[in-house]
Structures are given as structure tokens and as C-alpha cells.
Amino acid sequence: MKHNSKKSSHHKSINLIQILSFLFFFSFVSGCGWKFKVLSDQLPVNKIYLSGIENGVGRELLSRLRRMDNLNIVNSAVDSEVVINLLVDNEKVVVGFSGAGRPRELELRTTVKIEINDQEGKPIQPLDKLQIIRSVNFSDTDVLATQSHEAFHRSDIEKQLAIRIIERLQRIAP
């Protein structure tokens, strides 16, 4: 019987430690100002015309905007409340070489110039430039893995830039 009481008190102390650890972590995270950033599915406008979306960032942006409620993507600037012009530039730059002179590290750079205008062409927000740079290690012995790694990063960059563009759209005054 003494053996069971030791086991029970040990079990209670473990639960107490877990609870205190959780409370400490929660108070630390909430006290430092960190919070999850939730992307709202609402925009201050109902009709948008997109220009310059024949690229990965544009396709990702179009896909995300189509999932939003109460938003129509129109086929002409005249029918829209807001016109979004995108200019996307993708670069792949070798930044590191091996001792033998072969590429060892690449940088994937994607720059988006975004212009948000009203239907008459007047700027709602000034021309904005967004850029994301990612480094990718290159192995000439495993080219397929390097290519899939590069494709993964390129896709992630496109998603992040589309989210940033939507955040800017959410801040415009109707």
C-alpha cells in the first residue's frame, strides 16, 4: 500500500509540473506580444481587376482572392473599384562557389512591384516593392534534389508574397 501512495504522489507531481510548465510557457508567449497572425478573408472593396498576373505570384494571388467571400474579380478596370498592377521579377543568382569553381549556393530572389489604383487610374497606395530572398545549397551530384528544393522555395516565396499583397489590400481605405 505504501508503494501505491508513492506512485500516486509521483504521478501528481508530474501532472503539477506539466501544468506549471504550460502556464509558464503560455504567460511567456502572451506577455512578449507574440501572437498568431490571422489573414482575414475580408477586403474593403468588392470588385478587383488584376493586371500582370501571368506568373507564379499572380496565380497564387488570384487563387487566394477567388476563395474570399463577397469579392468579385472582374475582367476590366472600368468595372472594378480597385486595379492591382503587378510586375514580378524572378532571379537566380550564384553566390557561392566550391574550390573547383562549381556553383555551391544559389539565391532565389523574387521582387514584386505592386501598384494599387482606383478605376480611374489614380493611386490609392504609392508604388510598393516587395522582395523575398532565399538561399539554396547546390549539389552537382544530386541535381534532382536541388531542383525540387529550389521549386519548394520558389512556391513558398510566391505564397508569402501573395499574402503580403492581400495584407496591403486590407489596409486600403474604401
Under the CATH scheme, the architecture of the largest domain is 2-Layer Sandwich
What's the CATH topology name of the largest domain?
Double Stranded RNA Binding Domain
What characterizes the major β-sheet? Answer: 5 strands, mixed
Q: What is the H/E string?
A: HEHEEEEH
Q: Which segments are poorly predicted (pLDDT under 50) over 5 or more consecutive residues?
A: none
CATH superfamily of the largest domain: Lipoprotein like domain
Beta-strand content bin:
25-35%
How many helices? The count is 3
- Per DSSP E runs of 2 or more residues, the count of β-strands stands at 5
What average pLDDT do the residues reach?
84
Number of domains: 2
- Measure the end-to-end span: 73 Å
In short:
The chain is α/β, with parallel strands linked by helices and about 170 residues long. The chain has helices spanning about 1-30, 55-65, 145-170; strands at about 45-50, 70-75, 80-95, 105-120, 125-135. A five-stranded mixed beta sheet has the order 2-1-3-4-5, covered by helices on one side.
Topology:
Blueprint: H1 2-31, E1 47-51, H2 56-66, E2 72-73, E3 82-97, E4 103-118, E5 123-137, H3 143-170
Parallel strand pairs: 1-2, 1-3
Antiparallel strand pairs: 3-4, 4-5
Description:
The chain is α/β, with parallel strands linked by helices and 174 residues long. It folds into 2 domains: 1-35; 47-170, Lipoprotein like domain (Double Stranded RNA Binding Domain, 2-Layer Sandwich). Helix content is 40%, strand content 31%. It has helices spanning 2-31, 56-66, 143-170; strands spanning 47-51, 72-73, 82-97, 103-118, 123-137. It has a 5-stranded mixed beta sheet, covered by helices on one side. α2 (56-66) packs across α3. The longest helix is centred in the N-terminal third of the chain and has 30 residues, at 2-31.
